[in-house]
Design a protein that fits this description.
This protein is mainly beta and about 140 residues long. About 10% of the residues lie in helices and about 50% in strands. It has a 10-stranded antiparallel sheet with strand order 1-2-10-7-6-3-4-5-9-8.
């Protein structure tokens, strides 16, 4: 890690991927109707890429598939004095189904049908570990 004044400690590629592997909720930033849009997704890391499920008819699926998108995940303390965040850029493509775990959700199982899986390779990835410098 390298000191990066103002943002915390700069993480290398492997550190970023390892931290992404500890999270399960992230955000996809994509274009919808020529405007930026952000959607939270449950995801997993598979071979230097994030993979997530989306409804086939959703704006996220339409806007992200075969497009360059951004993805971010983080784990920050409530006071923002510690934690990390990782951002990546890549072209989202269709992927095979993956196990995203079984979240405790009151949604009917039918809500999971019709899902498609998208994969965003970490073509560009960066991240920071935030540490309190007051100590």
């Amino acid at each position: 890690m390298v000191e990066d004044v103002g943002f915390g400690l700069l993480l290398d590629r492997q550190q970023c991927l390892a931290l992404l592997g500890t999270a399960s909720l992230g955000r996809v930033i994509f274009t919808h109707r020529a405007m930026p849009a952000v959607r939270p997704v449950r995801f997993t890391v598979v071979d230097d890429a994030v993979v997530f499920a989306v409804p086939a008819g959703s704006p996220l699926y339409a806007g992200a598939r075969d497009a360059v998108v951004a993805f971010e995940a983080d784990d920050l303390a409530a006071d923002l004095g510690a934690g990390w965040y990782v951002s990546l850029l890549g072209r989202a493509t269709e992927a095979g189904a993956v196990d995203l775990g079984d979240p405790a959700c009151p949604c009917p199982a039918s809500a999971r049908t019709g899902r498609r899986f998208l994969r965003i390779p970490a073509e560009t990835i960066s991240g920071h570990r935030i540490v309190c410098h007051a100590e």
